[in-house]
Specification:
This is Xanthine phosphoribosyltransferase. It is built from six helices and ten strands; from the N terminus they run αββααβαββββαβαββ. By secondary structure, the chain is of the alpha/beta class. The protein has one domain: Rossmann fold (3-Layer(aba) Sandwich). The strands form three sheets. A six-stranded mixed beta sheet has the order 4-3-7-8-9-10, sandwiched between helices. The chain has a two-stranded antiparallel sheet with strand order 1-2. The structure holds 1-O-pyrophosphono-5-O-phosphono-alpha-D-ribofuranose and xanthine (XAN).
């Protein structure tokens, strides 16, 4: 997605520890036209699989996931990182690690909104190590739903999440790919794959 690649080149900042700051378009401020285009691109890619639900994780996955769900006309469910008292039991749960805040987090999805018969596409903002997606697949497994595919806005190829998730045997579609980044070379970003 060339518009996304251009925005990453214009706004992206390399942070220590291999982190990319894109707070101006993905993680703090959101750009409506760009977010809509993300949804259109994911919807075009995954519509042939006839998903019944989009699954993501709060907080930064919500915008691209909702944009995708709106294009497809299907519900979007997001895993919560704290179980609210309104959540109906039983809830499916798995542990994950927050990459940007550090530490383990528990994820919760109510059985009210995910279950046998659901055909699920996961949408998230970043695909890095693949750990977060792995936790979501655990939740999908508990629910009895079927995982059809994975879409992530930005892939950090140098963290090899795609390879680590190969056993899932699902199509993985990303919109921009960070091949590598360093002070010397800057952000080497290309269209997703
Ligand atoms: O592939 P991984 O190595 O698991 O990294 C990707 C995850 O890391 C971030 O979550 P984080 O909780 O840090 O951020 P958020 O609260 O902005 O969603 C991002 O939103 C992805 O969910
Ligand atoms: O804002 C972010 N920048 C990153 O580099 C990253 N990797 C995983 N999750 C991330 N979030």
């Amino acid at each position: 997605m060339q518009t996304l690649v251009d925005e990453i080149r214009a706004q992206g900042i390399i942070l220590p520890g291999g982190f990319l700051k894109v707070d101006g378009l993905v993680n703090h401020q959101l750009l409506p036209a760009l977010t809509r285009e993300m949804g259109q691109e994911f919807a075009r890619h995954f519509a042939p699989l006839s998903p019944s639900k989009i699954l993501t994780i709060e907080v930064s996955g919500i915008a691209p996931a909702l944009a995708t769900a709106m294009e497809l006309g299907i519900p979007m469910v997001y895993a919560r990182k704290k179980k609210p008292l309104t959540m109906k039991e039983p809830a499916y749960t798995a542990q994950s690690v927050s990459r940007t805040k550090g530490g383990a987090v528990d994820l919760f999805v109510s059985s009210e909104f995910l279950g046998v018969g659901d055909r699920v596409v996961i949408i998230d903002d970043f695909l890095a190590s693949g750990g977060t997606v792995r936790s979501l697949t655990d939740i999908i497994g508990q629910s009895g739903a079927t995982l059809l595919g994975l879409g992530c806005v930005i892939e950090k190829a140098f963290e090899h999440g795609r390879d680590r998730l190969a056993d899932l045997n699902i199509p993985i579609h990303t919109l921009a790919n960070i091949v590598r980044m360093s002070e010397a070379e800057g952000i080497v970003v290309e269209a997703g794959r």
